[in-house]
Amino acid sequence: MTDFFDAWVFEPGFVHFSIDSTTIVDNGGSYDVTVYMQQKLRRRDTYANSNRVEVTFMKSDYTTQTELMEFDGQFGEQTFTIPFEPVLTMCDYNEVLSDATIDQARFIKSTGLNYYSYTYFAADIQSVNEDDSTFLRVTHNWVAPDTFKTEIPGLIIADHRYWTVEGLFEGDFKTKGRFTYNTNTGSGGHVDVDFVTNSKDSLVLLYRPNKAVEWQIEDASNSTLVKRFTVDSLKTGEYSLAIWDWDRYMDINNEKVINSLAEVYPNPNNGDFNIKLNEQFNGTIQVVNSSGTTLFEKEIHKASEEFVSLGNLPDGLYFIRFIESKNRKSIIKKFIIQK
Fold first, then answer.
1. CB 106 within 8 A of CB 53
2. DSSP letters for 28-60
3. Among candidate residues 99, 128, 152, the one where a domain is terminated
4. Three-state DSSP class for residue 247
5. With contact defined as beta carbons under 8 Å apart, do 154 and 244 qualify?
6. pTM of the model
7. pLDDT tens, position by position, 3-15
8. What is the CATH number of the domain that holds 262?
């Protein structure tokens, strides 16, 4: 009982458990499922020991079986023999633990808005399966997400929260996803006020299908008035806020960012677009993708407008950077290729 009291009574803050990955091996009619689990911390410094965390395995017909996983410290690994091949493996599905998560699970049968209380998420269901429900579980994690495997210069991932979306999206089911952020300083606010240090236009939404894959900038609309991102086609995986920290991005040679001096039009475009500057420009134009890779570079001399043709690039979100030759003043703009 000493570990229990040390972790859950005497220690401040919260622990957080999540499934990092699983492997499934056919064992002659049953399945050996190895679960790899990670513990994170919120407002505390010490990992809990003697952890007992429920793991729920779900079959395609929504049948479930729950097992107890036991481990010490930050990481755990345990193999369970299950009588069916699970299509989902979930952590603390029955909400037994008082950890740093808030989650809700629903079986969706109709279109319309579904608000997942206290998760800063809503599902705007567009279409459903006529003869069956669809399982959709959303977890709001009150800890930092995993960082980038390869850093995108200047893009800072949230250090305080992220979302996990789990479900079986089959047949005609389709839903939009609304991810809300909050920069209010009054009652009920403060959720993201310390993280959003630049303008709300600098915010982006990141996505990855699982923990083995790198974060990418999701093609989501950002409504700064109501403070939410909307994803047109919700996918299972993890979502996180991130923000462009222009000072850090332009740290080389003490460059300055002045967003108001350039215009990209049309935007979205098919890869062919015009760039217009409010003054004659001498310097370099760079087009960068969401992974930070430079895809196009061109020198411009005494021009206030330039036509760019990048029709070979796939649909997605891109950034165009203007670097002035004389004083290294820079301008960065976002644009979307949508054919």
1. no
2. SSSEEEEEEEEEEEES-----SSEEEEEEEE-T
3. 99
4. helix
5. yes
6. 0.76
7. 554 556 557 789 9
8. 2.60.40.3080
